[in-house]
Amino acid sequence: MTYPTPAYNNDPQLKASAVELATAHAQQDSLQSGIYGHLKRDGTFTGCSVGCMAHDLDPTRAEDALAHEDYHDLHRIVSEELGLPLWLIEVEDRLFENLPATESNQFHADFFTSIPVGIDLNIVELKLRLALAIVIHGCAEYAVADYAERSTDYNPLLENLVKLAEEAVLTTSLDIADGGDNFTRTKSLRIRANEALGAAIRGGSSQYIPLVLAEALFLVLGSSSERVSMSMDRLSRSTITTRSTKWWWNKLKQTLEESAS
Q: Is the pTM of this model over 0.85?
């Protein structure tokens, strides 16, 4: 069982400071995708969404992290200083990097603005994991139907993924109802998702769709702080779903807003 994580440590001033910094980054053209950050010759800092925020919150620690290529510590700086869970900062990073350049600056400011003070962000993560499981299940069902139209062969990998994704939808829904993760409940499911991923890998290029879906499902069922961001990234970069990075950004905003009401 996880415990509530109140956004911005339930401190409106902390959010106001974050929004002010993010707005300044966008206005000063400090943001750049593809790098975590570096100091320019004039002494100003330029970097990605996470890099710029980390550098303003704790310059010494951020520069040390950059010097040692400890980029995860940049995520931890933003998480610790702003009272936001690490998984959400991982999502921030992925969305910023994958959005079009014409939209990423505005995203940086909007991201911190969109997070209501004091909401339970553990529940937000569970709701996003549910959305991911639903998308994976829908894609698997569609793939099964499409495969049946084009071939008389049976594809056990796809059929198995339909069942696994359906179970993931159910267990994540139960976690939301219970108010937190129940890792005992999902342990067997994670093992079977890992087995499905292994089978898809062994199948090679002929199993591209099962590979994408199995990987996304295995990621979202994991315990890493990157499980949501990496599963989103895997799906949005594939050709089997229309759920783009922009769609997931809108889904995050919707989930945050609903969790505040």
A: yes
Residue 153 has a pLDDT of 61
Domain coordinates of the chain in residue numbers?
Answer: 8-114, 121-260
φ, ψ of residue 92 in degrees (nearest 5): -55, -50
Distances (CA, A) of 156 to 66, 151, 168, 227, 255: 46, 13, 18, 26, 34
Tens digit of pLDDT for each residue in 194-211?
999 999 898 876 678 889
pLDDT one-digit tens code per residue, 71-115: 999 999 999 999 999 999 999 999 999 998 889 999 999 999 999
Rg of the chain (C-alpha set): 20
- The residue ranges of DSSP E strands in the chain, in sequence order, are 38-39, 45-46
Q: Quick check: 232 and 133 in contact, CB under 8 A?
A: no
Q: Distance between CA 45 and CA 61 in Å, rounded? A: 14
- The CB density around residue 100, as the number of other CB atoms within 10 Å, is 10
Residue 26: both structure tokens together: 């966008």
